[in-house]
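Annex B. Sample input.
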Amino acid sequence: MTEDKRIQTAPAAFKADVWAYFGFKAKEGSYELDKSHVVCKLCNARVKYSGNTTNLRAHVARHHDNVALQAYDAMLVPIFTLKLNHKINPRMVTVGKFDGVHPCLTAATQAGKVFIHNPHARGQRPAAHRLSQSAQDSDISLLNINQAVSCLTAGPLGPNTAGDTLLVGSQTNLLAYDVHDNADIFYREVTDGANAIVLGKLGDIQSPLAIIGGNCAIQGFDYEGKDQFWTVTGDNVRSLVLCDFTGDGKNELLVGSEDFDIRVFKEDELVSEMAENETVTSLCHMHGSRFGYALANGTVGVYDRTARYWRIKSKNHAMSIHAFDLNGDGVVELITGWSNGKIDARSDRTGEVIFKDNFASSVAGVVEGDYRMDGQVQLICTSTDGEVRGYLPASKELKGNLMESSVEQDLVRELSQRRQNLLLELRNYEENAKGVSETDSEVGVIPANTQLQTALSVRSATEAQKAHVELSISTPNETIIRSVLIFAEGIFEGESHVVHPSAQNLSGCVRVPIVPPKDIPVDLHIKAFIGGKTSTQFHVFEITRQLPRFSMYVMAVDPLVAPPTGRVTFSINDRPQRVVMWLNQNFLLPEGTNSPDVTFTSLRGGGLLSISMASSGQITLSTDDIDLAGDLIQSLASFLAIEDLSAEVDFPDYFKELRTTLTEVDEFHSVHQKLTAAIADHSNYIRNMLVQAEDARLMGDMITMKKRYRELYDLNRDLVTEYKIRSNNHNALLARLKSVNQAIQRAGRLRVGKPKNQVISACRDAIKSNNVNTLFKIMKAGAAASHASNREHVQRSRVWV
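Annex B, continued. Sample output.
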C-alpha cells in the first residue's frame, strides 16, 4: 500500500484516546476492552487482540511500512461527548455567551422549559425569577416559559449589554431574557405567533432586530421591544435567515414558508422569489450571497442568489442545517442533521459528502462555538435524546475529503465502475453486430435520422379523464418507444414518472397526462428508450422541455360560465407584440395567435381569464382569482423588466369575504378579552377557595373542607371548559388573521416595486388604526388612496372644529 503522507508515526505508548479512536471503551488509568479484535483504520483489517498491541504493531510494520496510527484528532472523531438528561426539541438549539465570556448550549425541552448548559461556572448560578437549577445535572439551569416553545435563538441585541440575549418565541408571545441577571428584557404579545426567529441587523436599520416569522407576517423588535419592522408574506413562515443577497454590504431577510417559496426582503421590499416544491423548513447563510436550504420532503441544497448549485433528496427529513468549515479548506460546508440520526457534511459547490457520523436518535440541532474555551471553534451536534458531540475542523494536512476511505480507494472504485459500464456497453455492441451478421436484420440498429420529438397541448375534461396538459413524445420513423422516464420537480410523486407500454401497445408515440398543481414553470427532463420492433437493446434519447407557467389554461370560452367580476387595470409603455411574446412563452396558445386580446378557461376551477390591451398601453385582466391576477402581473413585469407598476383593482366577491373576515376578527378579539377576564376571576376565586379549604382542615372542620373541595372541583371543570372555548376561539382568530395578512400580500402582488411596498405599508397602518374603509380604498386604488383619505379626515376635523 502506498504511504499516505497524512499518516503520522505511532506514539510510543497506546493511550486511552487512541483506544477510543479504535472503537474501544477506555477510561483514564486502565483500559476496558469489549472486543477481541482491533480494526486498523488504515486498511480496515481486523487484527486479533491478545492483551497487548503486539499484533497491531506487527500488522502496521508489515503492511504500512512502519507508518502507524493516524493522529487521534485527524479523523474527526468527536473531541467531546455529553449525555444531558433532558430531551431536546428539534430545530430549537443555540449557543450563547450570556455573561459575555462563557459559551452555553441552550435548547428547548419538554413541558415549556428551556435548559442552559454551562459547565464553565459550576455552582455560581443562584435560582431566581424564571431560572431554576436542574435536579438532574448541576451544569444545567432551567428557564420556565410556561408554554410550548416554538423557536429560540441567542445573540447581542442591546447596544450596552456585554452578554448575549436569549430570545424565546411561542405561538402567543416573544420573550427577551437576560440569563446572566435573571431578568426579562421585554415580553411582547405576538398575535401571529413565532414559528421561526433570527437575530441581527437588517438593511439600513441601525440596531439589531429580533425578527420573528409567524402566521403570514414577519415582525422585528429592537432591544426595548419596540416594533421596528413589519411585513407580510404568502403563507406561514417556517424559516428565516439574514444574508447579503444583493452584495451591497447590507443584510437582506430570506424567508421560507409553507407555500413552497423562498422570498428575499430588502427591509420591507420583496426583491426576489425562488419556487420550491415543498415547505421550506430550514435556511442557513453559507458565505456571500450563497445559502443552504432544506425542505419538508427530505431535500437539501445550495443557492447562490437565484441560481441553484445543487440539491439532493433523501427518504429522511433534514432536521437542521448549518454552515461550517469542517475540512479546513477555507470554505464552509453544508452540515445537515437528519431524522435518522445521521450527520453529514457536503461541499457547497458540488454536494459531495466529505464527512458523516451517526447518532442513536434523531438530530435536534447543529450549531457552533468555542465550547472548550481553547480558542478553537467546534461544530456542536445534538440529538433529541440529549446527546451532544463536538468536532474540531480538520488540520491543514487533512483538508479535503474526511471520509475514512482514502482518495486512492475512491479513485479505484470510480474507475472500476466506469470500466464495468464500458464493458457492458461493449458487450451490447458485440451482440448487436452478431445479430446483424447472423440474421441480416438490423436488430438494435435504428436509422441515423431518428429524433425524439415532443409536443405539449391542453386537454379539457372528459367523462373518462380529468383536464390535463398532454405531453406527446414521438419519433419520425418506424422505430418504437419502449419506455419513457420523466423527471420533474413538484409534479409527480417522487419527482419522477415512468411509462412502460405493454408489448402489444408498442408504437412510435407515447402520450403522458400532466397536471401541474401550481402555476410555476417546470423543466421536464425526458429519457426515452428507442429501438426496432424486435430489438432487445435500445438507444437512450434525452431531451429537456419546459412546461409553461400558465399551461393549465385553455384558450376557449365556455358559454355556461359567467363572466368574471374581478379586474385589474394598469398601463405599460411597451408594444403589443411584446405582450404577445409573453403570452406565447407562458401559455400554450394555438398557432397563429398574434393578438394580446385573449380569453382562457381554467382547467382547475373552470373560471374565465380575459386579457385585453388598448392602443394606449392600458391592460385589463379580468378574473375572479386574485392570486392568478397577482401571478400574471408579476410574470409580465419580470418579462418586460418593469421596475414600478401601479394598478387599479376591484374584486367584489373577494373584498366582500374580506370585510366579513375583518368583522369576525373584531368579534373574536372581544370574546378573547372576555374569556381572559373570566378565567382571571375564576383563578382568584380558586385561590380563596384553597385558603378556606386549608383553614377548615387545620380547624378540623371536615364538612366545610369537603364542601370547599367540591366547589373547587366544579370550578376546575368550568375552567377546563372555558380553556377549550378560549383555545378554539384563539385558533379561529389565528385563521382570520392569516386571511387578513394574505389579503395584504395579495394586494401588494397586484403592484410592482415601490407602489407594492407602499400598498403593504399603508394597509398595515389602516389596520392599526382600525380604518376598514381606508383599507379597501388602498387595496383598490393603491397607496394614493391612503393620502386622499387622510386629507379627507383632516378636512372633516376642521369642519367639526
